[in-house]
Each structure stands twice: as structure tokens, then as C-alpha cells.
Write a structure and sequence with these properties.
Blueprint: E1 12-13, E2 29-30, E3 48-53, E4 67-72, E5 81-87, H1 94-100, E6 117-121, H2 140-143, H3 153-168, E7 171-181, H4 183-192, E8 201-205, H5 211-217, E9 235-240, H6 250-259, E10 264-268, H7 277-281, E11 301-305, E12 325-327, E13 331-339, E14 342-349, E15 364-372, E16 384-389, E17 392-397, E18 404-412, E19 416-421
Parallel strand pairs: 1-3, 5-6, 5-7, 7-8, 8-9, 9-10
Antiparallel strand pairs: 1-2, 3-4, 4-6, 10-12, 11-15, 13-14, 14-19, 15-18, 16-17, 16-19
Helix pairs in contact: 4-5
Length: 422
């Protein structure tokens, strides 16, 4: 069978319901299925492969089950392509999720760029196998049963599938991105933030609850056991609506991300539980203003915390607000040097020339800047470092986790180099 990227390709790959080894999962491809099965999934001529498989014992499922995932190839052949991973909402399965991508405005977050590989996963086929594990406050009967910091079978399945896809195809391992809508948005936060060793950045469209991510990350009132050591998380983008009941608790989530010094670009407004980007942008035109697909896992990035110029959150007491707002929406950066003992990043604010928005872009913002994913310099806990930013300079010490933070930097539209050295 022709497997060239230009071919219209549909494969159904089957695995026995139970198996014992990695080599058996997924199995070798079977012949192209007959009409009425998966041929209709071909989108805009892009090659599509469909895989069905059982469970691996180490995932921890109590009963055998069968799942499906779909790989969509880049529209035109390319080597070292990025990977766009999609988690569907509770109202979809993997097939209906992919079909949404045929129509602009229908769950736009599901649509992968033409030059990316895309992986669509399923959690609809098996009862209770939700991305979030039933962790929303509305699922009172499931909250206690699925609470805690331990990894769920569904998350283990997701991560193993991603790793298998990375090994099988010519994908850039430093450009893997996770996104989802509603329940899939909850899964994006809860699964994505724990796996900064895999994902460069994540984006959640109206995530249905923050309980999953709060438990997985040990956000207050939870905490992580001492034996769990997390890698630097991916850069996170979240857009939620104060008039959407599923968004409850976002004040706690934003505070936890800020206090942990995790990178978050957050946008809100009264757009409800929406999935149409054009409709959302009529309320908040910033939701797609940050190029999250340019973030790379093998590059250092800054975290902006306690910044001036941010909006006032409507959660928890002003849910009737008609206002739109943002957190960290206008900060930008560029990597300059990442060498042993020396890191340089250019920091600056977006301008009206680079971001078209109805929001007023500040001319200056003061913010604490922390540095994550530093590639070539190891900063020990409590280690001394030196920094310079324009005419400002100083010395500091890393925190108990070896994180470098410089407080109160004044950032403007003029790109200014932040230099940190040992």
C-alpha cells in the first residue's frame, strides 16, 4: 500500500483486547476497511490512519476495553513535523471530533494546521473513561472516587499513545501540543500540565472544570506527595467564560498558577460554553493572539507573575459581569542565548501593530519574571545568580526548587535583553 504523504490513506489497525507487551500495541495494519467505516474521515485530502487497540496491563484498567485513535498526516509531506494532539468534548467521540474539522466554526480548537501531524484520541467508547475522571464539582458521586494525585488509566493510555505516535512518525519531539474543548479542555489542563517533558504548550477551550488539574498538580487545597517531582510545565493558554457554569473555580486556578510561577495566558468574557472562535473573538479578541504553536520544549521560557496591567477576574463574585479581560496577554519574548552559565532572553510587550485588539495595550508593565526550561545551565536550590535587564542589574538566589526569579522588571514595547548568569 502506498504510504506517501500525498496519498489519501485510511488504515484500520486492530489489536487483541488484551496483550502483554509494547511490541503488540498497536498491531500491524490490516487492509483498508470497506465502505461505510472510516473512509469518510479523510479531511481535505489529508492522509488518515485509524487504529483500534485493547489495553496494556500497566494502564490499570479494571476491565478489558477497546479504544480508537486517529492519526492525520500533514497535507503535504515534510520531515520533523510538529504534532497537534486533540482531546474531544463529552458530546463527541473521536470520529465526530474529527468530522467537526470540516466546518469552520465547529469546535475550531480541533482543527490542526495543515503542516502538522494530528492525533485524535477517544474516551467515549468505554463508560467512565473520561479525560477528567469525573472530577468536576457537578459530578459529586465521582469526585471522591477519582480525587488525588495518582495517574488515571485514561491518562496513562493518552501518554503511551502519544509516545507511540512520536516513535512511529517523523515528528519533532520538541513541538508537541495538546488542546481540547470542554471536557477535553479539562483533560488538557489536568493531563498537559503534568507532562512538561512531552508538551511544549497546551491550549484549553472553555475547560469543563479545574478540579482535575487542581488534583493532578496539587493546587490548594490539595498538595503533592513529596516523592512526586514535576518537570517544568508547558506554557498554558486558557479561555473561559464567567457565564459558563463549567468555569467555576477559575479564580483558584489562576492564583495557583501565579503562585507556582507557571506560565499562563488567560482570557475571559461572557461568551458562554462556546467553541466557535469567530463568535468568541467578538467578545474577547485575544483568545488567538498568542502564537502558542511556536513554543518549543527545548527552549527556555519566561513566566510572568504578579503583573500590572492584568484585568480583574470576575470569579467568584461577579459572574454577571459583561466585561472581557486577560492575564499576561501582552507579554512576549525571544530566545537569544542559552549557553552553559549564561541565558539571554529578549522581553517586550505586544503593540497595536502586532496585536489587533479592542483592548488597550499598556505601554509598560511591571512583573516578576521566572525562567523555566533552561537548557544548558543547572541552578541548584539556593544557588546565587546575577542578572541584568537594560540599565537595571542585581543578584539573587534560586528557590528551593532551583527556580530563578527576578522581581519587578519593567517591560515595555522596546525589546530588552534579560541576562542571567551564574
Amino acid at each position: 500500500m502506498n504510504r506517501t504523504p500525498h496519498a489519501t490513506l485510511v488504515l484500520l489497525t486492530l489489536v487483541l483486547p488484551l496483550f502483554s507487551g509494547e511490541k503488540d500495541w498497536p498491531a500491524a495494519a490490516t487492509p483498508t476497511p470497506k465502505a461505510g467505516s472510516f473512509e469518510e474521515l479523510v479531511i481535505d485530502g489529508r492522509p488518515v490512519e485509524v487504529f483500534q487497540h485493547g489495553v496494556r496491563p500497566e494502564w490499570g484498567y479494571k476491565q478489558p476495553q477497546q479504544d480508537t485513535f486517529i492519526v492525520v498526516h500533514p497535507k503535504t509531506g515534510r520531515k520533523n513535523a510538529p504534532l497537534y494532539v486533540v482531546l474531544h468534548s463529552a458530546g463527541h467521540d473521536v470520529v465526530s471530533c474529527l468530522k467537526c474539522t470540516r466546518t469552520v466554526g465547529n469546535h475550531d480548537i480541533y482543527r490542526a494546521p495543515d503542516d502538522f501531524y494530528a492525533l485524535y484520541l477517544d474516551c467515549r467508547a468505554n463508560k467512565g473513561d473520561w479525560w477528567w475522571g469525573g472530577m468536576h464539582v457537578g459530578d459529586a458521586g465521582l469526585t471522591q472516587r477519582n480525587s488525588g494525585s495518582e495517574t488515571s488509566p485514561a491518562e496513562k493510555r493518552v501518554m503511551d499513545t502519544i509516545k507511540w505516535v512520536l516513535a512511529k512518525y517523523a515528528i519533532d519531539p520538541n513541538r508537541v501540543y495538546l488542546c481540547g474543548n470542554s471536557m477535553g479542555g479539562s483533560g488538557t489542563l489536568g493531563i498537559g500540565l503534568r507532562h512538561g517533558d512531552v508538551f511544549a504548550a497546551i491550549k484549553a477551550n472553555v475547560p469543563a472544570g479545574i478540579e482535575h488539574v487542581s488534583h493532578r498538580m496539587g493546587f490548594p487545597p490539595q498538595s503533592l506527595p513529596e516523592h512526586i517531582k514535576l518537570p517544568d510545565p508547558p506554557v498554558a493558554i486558557d479561555y473561559s467564560a464567567q457565564n459558563d457554569g463549567w468555569s467555576k473555580g477559575h479564580d483558584r486556578f489562576v492564583k495557583a498558577m501565579n503562585n507556582r510561577k507557571y506560565a499562563l495566558h488567560f482570557y475571559w468574557g461572557p461568551f458562554g460554553h462556546a467553541n466557535n472562535h469567530a463568535a468568541i473573538e467578538k467578545v474577547n479578541d485575544l483568545v488567538n493572539s498568542f502564537d502558542w504553536l511556536s513554543v518549543k520544549k527545548n527552549e527556555a521560557y519566561p513566566v510572568f507573575a504578579n503583573a500590572t496591567g492584568n484585568g480583574t477576574l470576575p470569579w467568584p463574585d461577579d459572574l454577571q459581569s459583561k466585561s472581557a479581560g486577560q492575564i499576561n496577554a501582552f507579554f512576549r519574548w525571544k530566545n537569544l542565548t542559552d549557553a552553559k552559565g549564561r541565558l539571554e532572553l529578549s522581553l517586550f510587550l505586544a503593540t497595536p501593530a502586532t496585536v489587533k485588539t479592542t483592548f488597550e495595550i499598556p505601554e509598560e508593565a511591571s512583573t516578576d519574571v521566572s525562567l523555566r526550561r533552561i537548557q544548558n545551565t543547572q541552578f541548584a536550590p539556593g544557588a546565587a545568580f546575577k542578572w541584568a535587564f537594560g540599565t537595571a542589574h542585581g543578584e539573587g538566589k534560586t528557590d528551593a526548587n532551583g527556580l530563578v526569579t527576578i522581581p519587578g522588571l519593567k517591560i515595555t514595547a522596546e525589546p530588552t535583553t534579560l541576562l542571567v548568569s551564574q
